Amino acid sequence: MSSLWAKFTGALVMVIGLLGAALLFVGGQRDRAKEAAGRAKAEAKSKNAVLEAERSIDKARAQSREQSSEVQREADQRPKGQRPSGNLRR
Asked: Sign of torsion, CA 46 48 54 57?
């Protein structure tokens, strides 16, 4: 009878150990998934910030081009005697 009890106890301890190992494995997987999600979120924020900076740079360039063309147009519309002289004109 004690041999049967020892086998049963050993099997029970083995099952509990396997369940504990499975829980640790699943918990580790969950932690790794959370870390990966955090990294992906940080990367997305970084990419978003870069895209926003590029948009503002493009907007500033467009405004600069508009102002430059407006100044050039005003200079071209001046009477010939009032135009700036020199070779720096486009």
From this structure: negative
C-alpha 19 chain-centroid distance? 38
Does residue 66 lie in a domain region?
yes
Count the domains in the chain.
1
Does some domain include residue 59?
Answer: yes
Phi/psi region, residue 86 (left: phi>0; alpha: psi -120 to 50; beta: rest), is left
Measured CA angle at 28 (ends 41, 23), to 5 deg: 140
- For residue 48, give its domain range: 29-75
Please indicate, yes or no, whether the overall pTM of this predicted structure exceeds 0.85.
no
Reported as a single tens digit per residue, the pLDDT across 39-68 is 999 999 999 999 999 999 999 999 999 998
Has residue 45 been placed in a domain?
yes
CA angle 30–36–38, rounded 5-degree value: 105
